[in-house]
Amino acid sequence: MVLGWKTQYEKRVPTEDLSNWEIFALLEKACLQLEWEYLVVDEETFTATTPTHWTLSEEIITVAVEPAGIVFKSQSESLELYEAGRNKKNIEGHLIPAFKKIKAGLDKNKLQNAANELKAATLKQLKSGNRIDGEKITFGFRGNEVTFFLIAVNVIVFIAMAMKGVDIYQPTVDDILAWGGNVEFNVTGGEWWRLLTNIFVHIGITHLLVSLFGLFFIGIMVESILGKLKYLIAYLCTGVLASLASIAWVAEGVTAGATGAIFGMFGVFTAFLTTRYIDKKFPKIWLVCIGAYVVYNMVTALQGQNDDVANLGGFISGICAGYLFYFFHFKKNVARAGGTRISVEVLLITGLILFFYMKKYGKDDSLRFEKAVMRLNQIEVKAMTQMQRLQLASSNDDAARVLRDSALPEWKHFQTEITKTGKYTLDPKFVHKRELLSEYAGLRLRQTELIYKSVHEETDKYNPEIDEVSDKIERIIDQLGVE
User: Model pTM?
Assistant: First the structure.
């Protein structure tokens, strides 16, 4: 058990007359067996990374071949508050035993062949400066699990919407909003989660299929570069920032779809294209499909059917994320799956941008007020229903009872609910609406009390005041209709 900052463990073992490349060949097979990502840095250094823990922490494994022996080192990638001996276990419990077991099971010729193949491939990459080959891209599930997971989430959400009665060709604005669509009024009103949920909601089956097409082809490329965790974080963060750009630029309208996040992956990929980390020879089918996706989005943007602001926001944020990953991690020659620390920082930067946006623009309670108005409408319907029951009353006593026990409590409830909104911070438009509704509640309550007195006392003396109150109610209703 160790408490500390970037804890580490180191162990030296003899080379046993093995060459550097024979050692690296054994380490490669050991990492494949342990399911660790690995990278041969140069002719003397080998790196690997352990799988990510639930704490978003992992260890970087460095193996250096020196004249005095092989130095195995495991170091925590980020701050460790409770290391629990994982670094020592990585070396003595996992890597060295696997290394020795594989060595014992290989004859000298097979080991030499494996070493020669690894040496040739590594030196070719080192000479070109490229650390990821286009030939490593696969189109199946294996190696692209996160891409297929994201595709599955989009499809499941769409099927769920269809099963709930949403039109699969032309869903209504209310449907998209109900399922998590992105709209400035709701987001600044406190529903910030819409910035994330909207990237899994699509406006019809055509929109879904186009998004899945783009996600598949850019996803398998970016996942092969970043590794699973960083890819997922980059996708979600660029999607959120794309959504934020959309509502910051266009306040009106409801938007949804994965294209902002997908263009974020285009941004990540573009950032890496400007480095020497990846090979620029890609399968032709990949280039054709990506080109078709870009052309389609450009055409639909010109026709006003696409959220080009979200696409641009996603693309720019993707470029920024890509450079963060490259300069703070990939350039350091550690294995591709490593770098949780910078992944957390990308999350943190996204969170801070969202926080400051909400702090500046999410100040009022307009959304809460609108929801309160919806509740008031329901109360009003109940109250008016009770008022209509007066026509069916068989006697004055029955009418008085309906007014006293049903109508009056509903209007008092209405007045209580509108009074609760008095603490809300609202813009002038909603302040005026609240004042009208508050006055309306008082007049309705007074009107019902006067009618009750008139019925209960069996007199017409309250009629002039009832008419006066009714006229005021009509004028307020007219004003509310204009709001």
Answer: 0.68
Kindly state the tokens that stand for 147. 């891409």
DSSP 153-216: HHHHHHHHHHHTT--SSS--HHHHHHTT-B-HHHHHTT-TTHHHHGGG--SSHHHHHHHHHHHH
Distance CA 140, CA 70 (A): 37
Task: Spell out the domain ranges in the chain.
Answer: 8-128, 145-361, 366-482
Question: Rounded to whole angstroms, how far apart are CA atoms 29 and 14?
Answer: 19
Q: What are phi and psi of 435, to 5 degrees?
A: -65, -40
- How far the first Cα of the chain sits from its last, in Å, is 65
| Secondary structure letter of residue 277 according to DSSP | S
Burial code (b: 16+ CB inside 10 Å, e: under 16) for 370-382 equals: eebbeebeebbeb
Question: Under a CB-based contact definition with an 8 Å cutoff, are residues 102 and 33 in contact?
Answer: yes
What is the sign of the dihedral through the CA atoms of 251, 204, 312 and 277? positive
Beta bridge partners of 13: 70
| Topology adopted by domain 8-128 | TATA-Binding Protein (3.30.310)
Task: Answer whether residue 3 shows pLDDT above 50.
Answer: no
CATH class of 145-361: mainly alpha
pLDDT-based confidence at residue 10 (cuts at 50, 70, 90): very high
Looking at residue 471, its amino acid is: D
Cβ neighbours, 10 Å, residue 155: 14
The encoded tokens of residue 234 equal 């980059």
Mean pLDDT of 432-456: 93
- Sheet of strand 69-76, all strands in order from the earlier edge strand to the far edge: 8-13, 69-76, 59-66, 45-49, 37-40
